[in-house]
Amino acid sequence: MKRHSMLLTPAVAAALALGACSAETEPALDEPTAANKSPASSASTSASSTSTEATTDISPTAAQAAAAKPAAEGFTLEDTHIRSEQPAEMMIEDVRAGAHDGFDRLVVELSGTGSPSVIAGYEADPRQQASGYEIRPAGNAFFTLLIQGVPLSMSADEEIVAKSDPSGVAAGNIVGVADGGVFEADAQYVVGLNAQRPYKLTVLENPTRVVVDFQK
């Protein structure tokens, strides 16, 4: 995945625009069997599930079966880029995941002004921005998420850093999330899954959330 080459197909762009502008609400992630977040998470995820609930089969057979499943409407395996016309200066408030009927959901909640641009896609060998160091969470497939409009200053505050820490975030086929830090106002996360799965990327409002749904 290259930052300068993220383009949406017309069909995917229409689906993303509809998701971003609609009154869609995020499914509840506080149900005991739905979400998993580390103890350092905010109060909204304090009722997260146990680690056994996030256990998933990452065997080669399971990976091949997932890769062979066709994408549902609105889902894709291609790189995507949501471009915002509003300048953003935001802070990450929470990172959480939940298992739902038909999809597993990753949510990055933000506060601040404007609306973020987002670049997302699968990478065989994910690397940290600037340093080029390998980022390798648990899993067989790696999905990179870049949220643009997050100032570098957020990394200087321990309380803010704790909110953005994805340690322990897992649900369903999302088996781990690694934090790549912030570089030039781009916050980077790498999601580990049991296999490449079609996904749908949206930005929701009130509060601002970057949402990635991975098809089961």
Q: Could you give the order of the helices and strands?
A: HEHEEEEEHEEEE
Q: What is the percent of helical residues?
A: 10-25%
CATH architectural arrangement: Sandwich
In percent terms, what proportion of residues is strand? Answer: 25-35%
Overall pLDDT level: 78
In whole angstroms, the N-to-C terminal distance is 23 Å
Number of helices: 3
CATH class: Mainly Beta
Describe the structure.
By secondary structure, the protein is mainly β. It has one domain: Immunoglobulin-like, CATH 2.60.40.3500. Helix content is 13%, strand content 34%. It is built from 3 helices and 10 strands, in the order αβαβββββαββββ. The strands form 2 sheets. The chain has a 5-stranded antiparallel beta sheet. The protein has a 5-stranded antiparallel beta sheet with strand order 2-5-6-8-7. β9 (199-204) and β10 (208-215) form a beta hairpin. The radius of gyration is 16 Å and the shape is globular. The model is unreliable at 4-24, 29-35 and 38-57 (pLDDT under 50).
Quick overview of this protein structure:
This protein has 216 residues and is mainly beta. It has three helices and ten strands, in the order αβαβββββαββββ. The strands form two sheets. A five-stranded antiparallel sheet has the order 1-3-4-10-9. Strands 2-5-6-8-7 form a five-stranded antiparallel sheet.
